[in-house]
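call fold(seq) -> tokens
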Amino acid sequence: MEAIAKSDKVFKYLLIGIYSIIFITILHNLRTPYLWFDEAGQFFISKGLNHNSIPYSHPNGLLSVIENNKHYNLDPGGFSVLLHFWSYISNYHIWLRLLPFIFFIGVVCSFIFLSYKWTNNLNIALLIGVIPILTPVVLAMGFEVRAYSMESLGTMLTIVALEHFKKDVTNKYLLVWSCIFSFFMTSRYSEIVVVIIVSLYIVFLILNKTSGTLKQKLMSVIIYLLPLFVTFIYIYFFALIYQNKSLAPVAYLPYLKTDISLLLIPKNMLFLCLIVFLFIVYLFKNRIPFIKKYETLLFLTVIVNVSFIVLSFLNMYPWLPFSNRSISVLLLTLTCLSAILGELLLVLFKSTDILKYYLIAYILLFTLYLKKDNLLIRFYNNNVYVELERDSVPYNKIFVNSTESPSIKYMYEYGKFKSKKKNIYPKCFTFEKWHESIVNRSRLNLKDYDLFISPMKNVDDWQ
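ret:
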């Protein structure tokens, strides 16, 4: 026992060292100076402006933030409002990326917290905490100035809340968690689906309490649902009816109704197999003792996954299980797998062989080595950035494609090129507006410009 305790302690310090290396590495992502189209658009919306605002437009107040979010975004707008206040301190890219990174840290801490709660073993919890870091899309969204990391933390907190409600369903905590869920509902519409499903389960828990009268239970339901209902009404009337009232499919996204072949993509088939596996594990909850404590997690994960598949068949939401657009279902599935992994590690850690700790550490270090390229995210159009980063830019007339316009505006007005603006910005730039791009392409002769800035490789691809 003494040998196990000593090896546990050494392994804990080793894990803390690995975490230090990981965070020193990934913190370099905060230094990425370029905000790509959606990020830059998100930034300008938070200023009460939009992608097409003319250079040096004066930032507006909160009402303008809400107004521009209605027409230039496809999210409820909670992240836009949050970024509006966050950027009061600074508009520099490091500070802006710090906001999604804080949500990402919350996701990592949620994995650690839940694993520790389930296994009561800090070493296992720290190992499980590496999972979201090693998941490329989760890590990438942890630095991207958009609402995905906010949604990610909101999804993880629904699991934390359900763990709490296993023990205590009081009006006080119902109200607190309802307000927390309401906040995260404003991140993305997919999070609303998750919250609705979780809320139905919480209402079920309330009505099935052994204590309390029917009147008291109904009052608890009202207390819990009221903040969520108010938030949903706000989202509907101040965002959804302007962005997509009929929940019509978005042209550039894939849906199962129109493309059933999505199910045949190998990685998507793998994901479906994982869902089937989790459902089978759920069915054996009464035969396998340790599965019983994950009953709620497994059930909700399967239901949420099935719900999004159904929504995709109805042309209401795209099904992309390994992409940022389905980050909630991915995280729920990862949490289930991490719970099962934690139980397997718990059995392993009960053995007296000290070498097991070093074996696990080496496996983790080797995995990090294989993933090292994924730990550093690259958001920006490198050719554009290098071209404009020169001390002197030898161009008198620069045309900027609509997909690069907000990015370039941010760089010169708020970002790293702010000190370079005196000589060329904005007088040498012509910015294409997003909604006018088709008209511009028929009118403009790009040969009149010294530099053409676009994600496309050449002018012919653009025209």
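The beta strands are 398-400, 429-431, 451-453.
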